[in-house]
Amino acid sequence: MRVLFTSATFRSHLFPLVPLAWALRAAGHDVRVAVQPPLVRDVLGAGLPAIEAGAGPDFMIELKKALAGGLEGPGGTTPSIEQIVVPHVRIAEAFAADLVPFARRWSPDLVVADPAAFVAPVVARAVGAPLVLHTWGPMPDQLWADLVTESEVRQNWPKELLAFLDRWDVPLGPDYADLVIDPCPDELLAIRMASRHATRYVPYNGSALTPSWLDEPAGRPRVCISWGTTSDFMGSEVLRTPLRIVEALADMDVEVVAALGKIDRGLLGEPRDNVRVVDWLPLSMLLPTCDALINQGGPGTVLAAVASGVPQLVVPQISAQPLGAELLTASGAGLSLTPDEVTAESIEKTVSELLDGSSVRAAAQALAERNAARPDATQLVPALRS
């Protein structure tokens, strides 16, 4: 087969597609991955052939314009579904101008995409190929819970998205996608999309040289704090909360791995013997050595911890992160705090519970075992051929 992959212009949407792309290539299929220019290096870094498309509009600029000042944060307001979706539609329009002509030349047998890549159903419709959606974690229900009938979709989806899909005669309702591949554990599901195939979540977060200290005994519990890529579009303001958390952790008898990206080390104050600051390490490499994780609730981060059986504290700040925090807490495999609840005392209490609480550790391990028992990407390939 020829299989065309595409994703929204977020690494967190691209990375979950990589294991399936690898599996298809290993089975002898021809794979191409179409992305905007900012993600081309990430595709090549994953060892996959890239197609650059949709050059021109900058997704982050479009997102900031739509949100008129920022995503939800401490003291902020929750963005509407229109504010979130419209930038994706703008990108999809630019994508279609490049990708539809390419697809008509290349003739893919299958189109695979994350649900936020709204160009995917357009391309699939244009070439008569089946559309497979590949989710990225706990899916917000503002769009997909209403994908039942065409009339319900038209009542609930943003007008800009409907107009774009109508121009390309994309079917709405249950015929929108032929198959949905979902690596999200049942316990963390907000919705169940039609034609859903549950699969194992295999973390892919890029690659890096393994540091020598990673596999050395820490001598005390290792607690990682990671804040995803939200600072890319929220700026330094988003780091206020994790910096307070690092300060609180430094006073505990733990080894702290602060994986906060390329931040000014001076923001962390005086160096502490038990705090190790790293620019970035793949969570798939780091988490198996950790006893607990603190994060902002990004779906990829949450599921990477689930796959490793690591209990986690989620401090949600933007978009759908509160949903992930709520579902994780309900599963028993983690705890959550709001940014306003973060104090030295609350961090000590919750982290101690993650390290010593038998119930939360058992729930995290049970989630990991259920994830490992699901079919992996290689086992999905025969279903995609049929």
UniProtKB/TrEMBL annotation:
Erythromycin biosynthesis protein CIII-like C-terminal domain residues: 245-384
Keywords: Glycosyltransferase, Transferase
Keyword field contains Transferase: yes
Record domain Erythromycin biosynthesis protein CIII-like N-terminal: where: 22-59, 91-228
Family: Belongs to the glycosyltransferase 28 family.
Protein name, entry field: Nucleotide disphospho-sugar-binding domain-containing protein
UniProt source species: Micromonospora harpali
